[in-house]
Write a structure and sequence with these properties.
The protein is mainly alpha-helical and 73 residues long. The protein has one domain. α2 packs across α4. The chain is elongated, with a radius of gyration of 17 Å. The chain starts with a helix and ends with a helix. The mean pLDDT is 83.
């Protein structure tokens, strides 16, 4: 592994909570370019995928609950 590549891998030190926060803001579409660039450099791609799946499941579950409550009335 090249030293530059190893430096990039070690820079990805953001916590899972930071990843969840970044994914949440991405779902809303509200993000500064500087924050996006910072996140792109620090977030672990595996964490981003997991957080995205969790966010999508929460979104779908929320929609199902809303639709069921409206239809039940």
């Amino acid at each position: 592994m090249d030293t530059e590549e190893s430096k990039q891998v070690t820079k990805r030190k953001a916590s899972f909570a930071a990843t969840l926060k970044a994914v949440f803001w991405s779902f809303l579409g509200i993000r500064k370019k500087s924050d996006y660039e910072k996140d792109a450099a620090q977030l672990n791609p595996i964490h981003v995928i997991i957080a995205g799946v969790i966010g999508a499941l929460i979104f779908i579950t929320t929609l199902i609950v809303i639709v069921k409550s409206i239809v039940a009335k």
